[in-house]
Amino acid sequence: MINQDIPIKAYGVLDNFRTNATTDIAVEQLRTIGYAVIDSGMSRPEIDDIAERFARVSDNYIREHGRPALEAINEIDTIRALLAQGDEAFLQLAMNPLLMSVVKEVIVGKFILNQQNGIINPPQQQYSQSAWHRDLPYQHFVSSRPLAVNALYCIDDFTSMNGGTFVLPASHKIEQFPSEDYIRRNAVQVNAKAGSFIVLDCMLYHCGGYNSTTSPRRAVNHLFTVPYIKQQINLSQATAGQILSPEQKSFLGYDYPIPDSVGSYLNGRK
Ligand SMILES: O=C(O)CCC(=O)C(=O)O
Q1: Would 263 be classed as within a structural domain?
Q2: Torsion of CA 229, 85, 158, 1, to 10 degrees
Q3: Which residues line ligand 1 (CB under 6 A)?
Q4: What is the pTM of this model?
Q5: Residue of minimum CA distance from atom 1 in ligand 1
Q6: Where would you tag: which of 55, 128, 162, 230 has the fewest CB atoms within 10 A of its CB?
Q7: Is residue 9 in some structural domain?
């Protein structure tokens, strides 16, 4: 929402961000406050189609791995490696052109898809992602340029009623986790429409809220990282049976296998 009453003139400024394309403002926000909402450019039928596919894939996943077994390991809210579950639409989602243009600006040089997980915030229940975290958890460094960016694709509208994502603006710039008082004063709940991406610097503290409605709030979380960061699940092996373009293979990390031996490392240099 743009507030027309906010002053925009400045003095004493020699250098400033310039925004041209629609994605530039998202890039500027990611660098400064650590998050931005961007439209995927998808039509209503495409948004509905992804929602149907999500429901189908998650039902199959829960049937395959078993609800009690997933509950026992606190995995019932997460559908791991969606794009490796037999539906090509999720790889296309991860490579959404508007999203890619933002990620390319923010992560300098090569990046790969590190994770693509479906998440389901269940109605009126405990939710595994409701505790504050970074998406590179247990890390307390700050970097001048992000090593990783994540993008939550909203399957459903994200609202204050259904527990839309909370963020702590600019927390990617400070090593420590803030105090409770600071969190209460500064946390922001992001409202976003189905079909948009909430893009975060991966070091921004965030969490899901309490879903007080009667329907789940669903999303697809993506983590894009420099290739040196280990994938959560080996996506080149998990998609080995799929027909993929060189660009898709590179995006999934096929170009960065860990050599088994000095010999295979040296061969890879040729
Ligand atoms: O449910 C949400 O809005 C946040 C999800 C989240 O924190 C995550 O997947 O890392």
Answers
A1: no
A2: 60
A3: 119, 121, 129, 135, 165, 206-208, 221
A4: 0.92
A5: 208
A6: 230
A7: no
Asked if pLDDT for residue 268 goes beyond 70, the answer is: yes
- pLDDT, position 270: 81
- Expressed in angstroms and rounded, the spacing between residue 46 Cα and the centre of ligand 1 is 23
Atom of ligand 1 lying closest to residue 165 CA:
3
Enclosing domain of residue 220 = 30-231
**How far is the centre of ligand 1, averaged over its atoms, from the C-alpha of 257 (Å)?**
28
* Mean pLDDT to the nearest integer, 2-8: 82
pLDDT at 23: 75
Domain count for the chain: 1
Do 79 and 85 contact (CB within 8 A), yes or no?
Answer: yes
How many Å lie between the centroid of ligand 1 and the Cα of residue 37?
14
CA of 142 to the centre of ligand 1 (A): 21
